[in-house]
Amino acid sequence: MTSMRIASGLGLLLGLGLAAGQAQAQEGDAERGQQAAGACVACHQADGSGMSVSGGESWPRLAGLPAEYIAKQLHDFKEGRRENTTMMPFANMLDDQQVVDVAAYYSEMPVTEAQGGEDADEDLLARGEQLALRGDWDEYIVSCKSCHGPGNEGAGGTFPGIASQHAGYIEAQLRAWQAGERGNDPQNLMGAIAERMSDEDIRAVSVWLANQSVASE
Ligand code: HEC
Ligand code: HEC
């Protein structure tokens, strides 16, 4: 009985995977991924840490993000669902196999420290902590951790870890959702949240998250 249920559950999962149309690529291989990532280190760095560029466009940390999430973003850049003129040519360099390979490569790296939250004051950090861990029901803002997982370290392949991500990058993404410029999640879960956040809220949660270090086992 139970094994029947598991078997049909597996069948369903496999069916969904095939329906997603990306199942032609083999499973990701981190060693091959390292080769394909040669073009990425200039910005995302050899340890996957990326960089907070103050006053410019920050390069996100890729180290420790879920492989599924990374692969989805790369396909979204390639197919124009996520628009960024810096990233697009690099996503376009990768074929479907290389996408899953680099995704495996970066997902296996330990999470690195984030930049950009160093000089935040106490009040700003307290507001950021509230939004990240408890939310703000008066503003209808759900806590970040309700989707991004305990510690905001990520949950499954869909919800990337946002703790220990660069403040400038988090801020830029929240603003992009607010302005309707990042529309690659068909359910637009982040758009609905970002539109309720003030400039101060965006700044607060970004610097607080950047100050959270994620212990790697
Ligand atoms: C010239 C700098 C640059 C290079 C080189 C580069 N990227 Fe990026 N990458 C960026 C920027 C900037 C962003 C953020 C884009 C945005 O704001 O939407 C980004 C975003 C990403 C994201 C989305 C991360 C997230 O958290 O959603 C992935 C995945 C990614 N890059 C992978 C790669 C891979 C793989 C390569 C090499 C094949 C590469 N990048 C090369 C600058 C670069
Ligand atoms: C209802 C679920 C949900 C909640 C609550 C939520 N998020 Fe998200 N978030 C998502 C999903 C789904 C994605 C991935 C979207 C995609 O695939 O492009 C995401 C992605 C992100 C990203 C992009 C990460 C990257 O590497 O590019 C940031 C930044 C982010 N969320 C910040 C927040 C913050 C800050 C909060 C709290 C104020 C929050 N999220 C609350 C669902 C949620």
UniProtKB/TrEMBL annotation:
Q: Residue ranges of the Cytochrome c domain?
A: 28-110, 123-213
Secretion signal span: 1-25
The record's listing under InterPro entries reads: Cyt_c-like_dom, Cyt_c-like_dom_sf, Cytochrome_c4-like, Cytochrome_c_Oxidase_Subunit
The UniProt entry, under Pfam families, shows: Cytochrom_C
Q: Name the keywords, alphabetized.
A: Heme, Iron, Metal-binding, Signal
**What Gene3D superfamilies has UniProt attached to this entry?**
Cytochrome c-like domain (1.10.760.10)
Q: Which domain of life is it from?
A: Bacteria
The name under which this protein is listed is C-type cytochrome
Please give the organism. Answer: Halomonas rhizosphaerae
> Taxonomic classification, please?
Bacteria, Pseudomonadati, Pseudomonadota, Gammaproteobacteria, Oceanospirillales
